[in-house]
Amino acid sequence: MSEYTKILLEEDEMPTQWYNIVADLPEPPPPALHPGTHQPATAEDFAPLFPMALVEQEVSTERYIDIPGDVLDVYRLWRPSPLFRARRLEKLLDTPAKIFYKYEGVSPAGSHKPNTAVPQVWYNAQEGIRKLTTETGAGQWGSSLAFACAQFGLECEIWQVAASYLAKPHRRTMMEIWGGKVHPSPSDVTEFGRKLLAENPDHPGSLGIAISEAVSEAIEDETVRYALGSVLNHVLLHQTIIGEEALLQLAKVGETPDVLVGCTGGGSNFGGLAFPFLREKLAGKMSPVIRCVEPSACPTLTKGEYRYDFGDTAGLTPLMKMHTLGHGFIPEPIHAGGLRYHGMAPLVSHVYELGLVEAIAVPQLECFAGAVKFARSEGIVPAPEPTHAIAAAIREALACKESGEEKTILTALCGHGHLDLASYDRYMRGEMQDLELSDDLIKAAMLDVPEIA
Ligand SMILES: *Cc1c(COP(=O)(O)O)cnc(C)c1O
């Protein structure tokens, strides 16, 4: 097995349980709060938004949760996903480090998002829900949910951030192929959207605004629920299939990671890869450094405050304790649309506060430079979001070149960039800039964050 390139699992080797990190943390994460009373949110508070099974997963302290058989059946369309050894990138960088990447671009939607879209739709279908509403930034989540709804016969209505609706028309086409109905956000469909459009007819939108629109449509109808593609505990839970598979795959070649890096938008692909490894680390079985990588233009963990804030711009969602730049913060229109979110998964924020993981921010030019190196050596064109993880892996590999250390680096290549070529085009033509962020902008957005002791 000396010259293997990818490590595969058979279908019957696919894990059949998701892993819940809450069971193994030294301190429980702070609870979500009701947006009005600021008391810990109850199951009834979540009920207009999510089916009961997902509300239960959201607050569960069980270590393992069985993946339903119907979900495993759909997973088998693309899972187990391959783990690659990036030998060609290692050679290009002339590094003694070993680089592994878990490739999630093999899913129908081209990213890790279907790992949670499929179970979310299935649980809704079990509870008789007719339609799901959601938001999408880059279009990855919207297409994943539309695909999953098509699998189980639910309707799907999607609010796509206006800037990306215009920039990524092909993502919209994918959503429509799978039967989704797509609005640009802000839209004239909701009251909140109409208000924002009256203020600015060319409003670029944001994930926070699109969430407000999708939520407001779901809470008005008993047969409609909302689905979120990141941030929440149950989403990170579903994504742990990534890390569970990667553990088995690395074991096949006798490797354990010294460094694990993942890009963080809302934190789901990072949590999905990292939490099973964090379990092993907490149990003393390995000791990888685990690092979140975020964009410099939306530096939630590295520059945000750890406070209770809303998940959406209008303040409709429960309050979550997380690193936040302020729910009114509109990030610069960087190309990694999936990383343009003002907050962070409460579980990722919690493990960061506990000092169990690190975080760095990387500017987009460095990310695209790394992505082009990656594509020219490994072949796959990465989505703009995981270029952050690639840039961080390259930094680490080059540090190994300096020091001579033979570290094992693991990352997730959480999506391909076939529908993001306009971004690459800008980069290749030298038209891309780094969008730095003024501290004043963050300060201003933080003023609207509720004061909660
Ligand atoms: C949505 C998305 C992200 C950001 O979401 P996380 O919850 O942080 O994973 C990153 N990469 C890709 C390819 C995405 O589609």
UniProtKB/TrEMBL annotation:
Quaternary assembly: Tetramer of two alpha and two beta chains.
Write down which residues bear the modification named N6-(pyridoxal phosphate)lysine: 113
Give the EC number(s) under which this enzyme is classified: 4.2.1.20
Tell me, in a sentence or two, what this protein's role is: The beta subunit is responsible for the synthesis of L-tryptophan from indole and L-serine.
Cofactor needs: pyridoxal 5'-phosphate
Keywords of this protein's UniProt record, alphabetized?
Amino-acid biosynthesis, Aromatic amino acid biosynthesis, Lyase, Pyridoxal phosphate, Tryptophan biosynthesis
All copies of domain Tryptophan synthase beta chain-like PALP, residue ranges: 77-415
Q: Which organism is it from?
A: Candidatus Seongchinamella marina
Pfam families registered for this protein in UniProt: PALP
Q: Does the keyword Lyase apply?
A: yes
- Its recorded name reads Tryptophan synthase beta chain
- List the signal peptide residues: none
Pathway noted in the entry: Amino-acid biosynthesis; L-tryptophan biosynthesis; L-tryptophan from chorismate: step 5/5
EC class of the enzyme, as a word: lyase
Q: Which family does it belong to?
A: Belongs to the TrpB family.
The superkingdom listed in its UniProt entry is: Bacteria
Reactions mediated catalytically: (1S,2R)-1-C-(indol-3-yl)glycerol 3-phosphate + L-serine = D-glyceraldehyde 3-phosphate + L-tryptophan + H2O
